[in-house]
């Protein structure tokens, strides 16, 4: 169709209903879209990587280069999506009845505990022990709230472990633990609004923070105030991005953010020069910022199950200590990697590390050989 000036007008959008794993996904697309375009739209909605998607229309498997118009896909047409086993990101394909298994476990545990859920008082001698050692250990205690006695310990607390509970809120009172160095909040029921970041951002000695396996959709700019942080674990949440202020964490050595919905990484991450290990596996990344080349101490980079097609051009050249690179389930091929400057040196380090691991296993087999072949098939 042409307008009055002879230019080709864009075709009006149509709605295509994609049937996948017991649910219907309506997509508004142009008839001129290719099947590859359709798969790109489906990846974040299904957790299935593009190369793991098989689309079927009227009994025919659709090729990536085909257009909807050429296939006579009309408004309201139904297309079936079949996911290849293993080619997915995150916790697997999103199905109609998808439910977080950890939440089911927490609910079952809470029901089983009944009135025995620890909410109220902690025995006096235990509080005295906390103050004496500086370690508050309340992991797997069926807690729904943090006991008031914890806040009474104030600056004497160095470590607070309230992981594996059903806690929904970290109140402003956490700021009373002004000397805390290690804070484990992982595997709870915390959402964005449940964490008082104003209290957390006052911690000048905090080196370890674990927030994995919660229900976080975002991280605030206040994260950048934790300038002593060396380890940060925010994996298994619902994060769609990381704040630019992450670049202020100038002592960060380990960053784990796997199994989220992160689409892009801020360039400021290049300011985290001490980073040794980074895990962005099972996200929605299609590229990494060039500033990754600034991470010259980086040894391990985990990027499996993403939509990546390439890597920063200076990664192998500048990251001269990198020896572990996991790209399983991405679009990156060996042919692509061999074109990067510094690939040969990286490959040598990778092979050397692998050989050392093999040598260690073989060398240790004379001592730790009991049951060594127990799980080896015939």
How do the strands and helices of this protein lay out in sequence?
Layout (H helix, E strand, L loop, with lengths): L13 E7 L2 E7 L5 H12 L6 E5 L2 E2 L16 E6 L17 H13 L10 H10 L1 E3 L10 H5 L6 E3 L20 E3 L12 H4 L7 E3 L20 E3 L20 E3 L20 E3 L20 E3 L12 H4 L5 E3 L7 H4 L5 H22 L14
Parallel strand pairs: 1-5, 6-7, 7-8, 8-9, 9-10, 10-11, 11-12, 12-13, 13-14
Antiparallel strand pairs: 1-2, 3-4, 3-5
3D structure, described in words:
The chain has 378 residues and is an alpha/beta fold. The strands form 2 sheets. Strands 6-7-8-9-10-11-12-13-14 form a 9-stranded parallel sheet. Strands 2-1-5-3-4 form a 5-stranded mixed sheet, covered by helices on one side. The protein is globular and about 75 Å long. The chain is built from 8 helices and 14 strands.
